[in-house]
Design brief:
This protein is of the alpha/beta class. It folds into 2 domains: 246 residues, Peroxisomal Thiolase, Chain A, domain 1 (3-Layer(aba) Sandwich), CATH 3.40.47.10; 152 residues, Thiolase/Chalcone synthase (Peroxisomal Thiolase, Chain A, domain 1, 3-Layer(aba) Sandwich). The protein contains 13 helices and 14 strands. The chain has a 10-stranded mixed sheet with strand order 5-4-6-7-1-8-14-13-9-10, with helices on both faces. A two-stranded antiparallel sheet has the order 2-3. The chain has a two-stranded antiparallel ribbon with strand order 11-12. Strand 9, helix 11 and strand 10 form a beta-alpha-beta unit. The longest helix is centred in the N-terminal third of the chain and has 17 residues. It starts with 5 loop residues before the first strand and ends with a strand.
Length: 420
């Protein structure tokens, strides 16, 4: 059986450093931090008082008032990112076969804002009469962003979501790619969304000691690969890509950003929340992706690392990269763009896939910000190029994107510059 080639023809995003792909990319290269004091809820009694929130966002600019009542913020973000992605692709919605276009947009948590508001209002009421929003359940479902996008655009192809914590949207892109490779769809809107800057989420992640508590220096709190890193900074937003059968894209004269050539998945089989200390699962995911891509290790130019700025997670990923790439680990670029965007949980893989495609398009590697030369971890080999603080111009033909989630669920995607 011959597999179809899959290309990226559209990009969309809503992020803490820009509500379009162009704005996000500009701020990435400028090293802008998306961190700021939390505005979504009263955080005065919390240990963590900052996060990377989406800014200058008013749902009324995008949806009718009666529709907003039906949509959790996570779904709002996803629909806006999908709109940009589809518009960017130039897809003619009046002429394409919508039976052959699907949507696979994931969330690690789903409509947490809706859940907390509805349950909170119920338990705060004196009479405990269940006066719930009739859209309570469909607003909070993890698959509902995909359903909403499908309804808005009339796409009747495969439609679902994948839940694998912080690897959710990377898995979504990989599986969507497989759907096209196998001939089950001509195109797929693939990505992820998350809106988990809530009192419950921030409290829950904080008690796990997963979040940075550097409230006094919040702009520089996300310090991937630095000695003083103490946890991740929560982010929110959405990323979407239009993946398309190459022949379908060529037939309609689409702009092709890149080709997706590899998808690797694995499990740590180790711990519910901690990464494997020697990166065994991450190693296997990268090896699987590279094997499927059928490339040499030396072909890889850039790795967009999971790089959350946790003490254990960053180190285990570096160990895995060294195990996979050997000497070539010192020739490629590595960066954690989460130092600017924060960690978008289930949406992280998709947003970072967009970044990887932009790196190929522009031949530039975005930086890992917030590093100081005197802030080192003796366990990290700084002869590796972590692209600290400033972007680096170089030929970028092949990029790996790593995403690792609670439960030990790992995903790695390989993107390549398109060539006939």
């Amino acid at each position: 059986m011959s597999f179809k080639r899959v290309v990226v023809t559209g990009l969309g995003s809503v992020t803490p450093i820009g509500n379009t792909v162009a704005e996000m990319w500009q701020n990435l290269l400028a090293g802008v931090s998306g961190a700021g004091p939390i505005s979504h809820f009263d955080h005065s009694k919390h240990k963590v008082h900052f996060a990377c929130e989406v800014k200058n966002f008013n749902p009324a600019d995008h949806f009718e008032k009666k529709e907003i009542r039906k949509l959790d913020p996570s779904v709002q973000f996803a629909r806006i990112a999908a709109r940009e992605c589809i518009a960017d692709s130039g897809l003619d919605l009046n002429s394409v076969d919508k039976d052959r276009i699907g949507v696979l947009v994931s969330s690690g948590i789903g409509g947490l804002t809706t859940f907390e508001e509805e349950i909170g209002n119920f338990y705060a009421s004196e009479d405990k009469v269940p006066r719930f929003n009739p859209y309570f359940v469909p607003k909070m479902l993890g698959n509902i962003a995909a359903g909403n996008i499908s309804i808005e655009f009339g796409f009747r192809g495969p439609n679902f979501g994948i839940v694998s914590a912080c690897a959710s949207s990377a898995h979504a892109i990989g599986v969507a790619c497989d759907m096209i490779r196998l001939g089950k769809a001509n195109a797929m809107v693939a990505g992820g969304t998350e809106a988990a800057i809530t009192a419950g989420s921030m409290g829950g992640f904080s008690v796990m000691r997963a979040l940075s508590t550097n409230n006094d220096e919040y702009k520089t709190a996300s310090r991937a690969f630095s000695g003083s890193r103490d946890g991740f900074v929560m982010g929110e937003g959405s990323g979407c890509l239009l993946l398309e059968d190459l022949e379908h894209a060529k037939k309609r004269g689409a702009k092709i950003y890149a080709e997706i050539i590899g998808f690797g998945a694995s499990s740590d089989a180790y711990h519910l929340t901690a990464t494997h200390p020697t990166g065994d699962g991450a190693t296997l995911a990268m090896q699987n992706a590279i094997a499927e891509a059928n490339i040499k290790l030396s072909d890889v130019d850039y790795i967009n690392a999971h790089g959350t700025s946790t003490p254990l997670g960053d180190l285990s990923e570096i160990i895995a990269i060294q195990k996979v790439f050997g000497d070539h680990a010192y020739n490629l670029n590595i960066s954690s763009t989460k130092t600017m965007t924060g960690h978008l949980l289930g949406a992280a893989g998709a947003m970072e896939a967009v970044i990887c495609v932009k790196a190929i398009e522009n031949n530039v590697v975005p930086p890992t910000i917030n590093h100081r030369e005197d802030d080192v971890d003796p366990k990290i080999d700084y002869k590796m190029n972590f692209t600290f603080n400033t972007p680096q111009n170089r030929k970028v033909d092949v990029v790996l994107s790593n995403s690792f989630g609670f439960g030990g669920q790992n995903a790695c995607l390989v993107f390549k510059r398109y060539a006939e």
